[in-house]
Design brief:
Strands 2-1-3-6-5-4 form a 6-stranded mixed beta sheet, sandwiched between helices. It has one domain: Molybdenum Cofactor Biosythetic Enzyme, Chain A (3-Layer(aba) Sandwich). β5 and β6 form a beta hairpin. Helices cover about 45% and strands about 20% of the residues. The radius of gyration is 15 Å and the shape is globular. It contains 6 helices and 6 strands. The two termini are about 20 Å apart. It has about 160 residues and is α/β, with parallel strands linked by helices.
Length: about 160
């Protein structure tokens, strides 16, 4: 099953062209290896309105999955979770909870992540950390389980008990 996806990086330096989007590149490689088609990429500054607008634009394309990288920490400019919460219709707290739980086995600083996940229309939006290593760990951990949820979200599968 090939799902279409987009990746949005929130980074002031990245948006100014001062930093390569290594986290977005890593997320794209992981998605493509899992059979997703990454059909949109974006880089915006750490600005709540710009992030929210881009998330809405990607969801309006009826993409199955939109990943964000960056902006989930404690910096005064970090606002990706707030932008995400402003545009989603339903929260999916289990995914970021699972990422934090897994990441706590690697670093205690995982508890500082403010990442959220939620649904807008038929699109799942998931916040990832800004470091390529953390993207690899978090996305690598949850990606195998997302297929079932996306199939249900998009009407391609029925919920089923195991």
């Amino acid at each position: 099953m090939m799902f279409q996806a987009a990746i949005l990086t929130a980074s002031d330096k990245g948006a100014r062209g001062e930093r390569e989007d290594l986290s977005g590149n890593r997320a794209e490689a992981l998605l493509e290896a899992a059979g997703y088609e990454v059909c949109r990429r974006g880089i915006v500054p750490d600005d709540r309105e710009q992030i929210a607008a881009q998330l809405c634009e990607f969801a309006a394309l009826d993409l199955a999955l939109v990943l964000t990288t960056g902006g989930t920490g404690f910096s005064p400019r970090d606002c990706t979770p707030e932008a995400t919460l402003a545009v989603i219709e339903r929260q999916v707290p289990g995914i970021p909870e699972a990422m934090r739980s897994f990441s706590l086995q690697i670093t205690k600083r995982a508890m500082l992540s403010r990442a959220v996940a939620g649904i807008r229309g038929r699109t799942l939006i998931l916040n990832l950390p800004g470091s390529p290593k953390a993207v690899e760990e978090c996305l690598g951990f949850v990606l195998p389980e997302l297929e079932h949820g996306l199939k249900i979200l998009r009407g391609q599968a029925q919920e089923c008990a195991r």
